[in-house]
Amino acid sequence: MASRPSSTRARSPSSGSGIPREQAGQDDGTERNCTVSDTRNGEPRDAEAQKERGVTLRAGLYIFGTHLFAGFVWLLFYVGEHANK
Fold first, then answer.
1. Is 78 exposed, middle or buried (0-12, 13-18, 19+ CB in 10 A)?
2. Closest CA to 44 of 52, 54, 53, 36
3. Composition bias, kind Basic and acidic residues: at what positions (predicted)?
């Protein structure tokens, strides 16, 4: 009888049904960094706060950049108005 060649792919831990243990409801014995009450939509609340800070920073940079561009355009008009013709 010929033996089957062993697969070179690493197998993920599963409950035998092809579903990872964590999704199948079986605990793997490791502690989590956050509990279910500390998460929202599967992400820790710290991640949500970090996203909020990122959006605030991006909005501030866009506002600053827009004002800088508007000031440059205003300067072009000012110089053009006072140019010797």
1. exposed
2. 36
3. 40-52
- Residue 47's domain spans which residues? 40-85
As a whole number, the mean pLDDT across the chain is 75
Residue 2 belongs to some domain of the structure: no
H helices of the chain, in order, are 21-24, 45-81
In a domain, 35, yes or no: no
Q: Give the number of domains in the chain.
A: 1
- pLDDT tens-digit map of 27-67: 556 655 555 555 556 666 789 999 999 999 999 999 999 99
Are the C-beta atoms of residues 60 and 67 closer than 8 Å to each other?
A: no
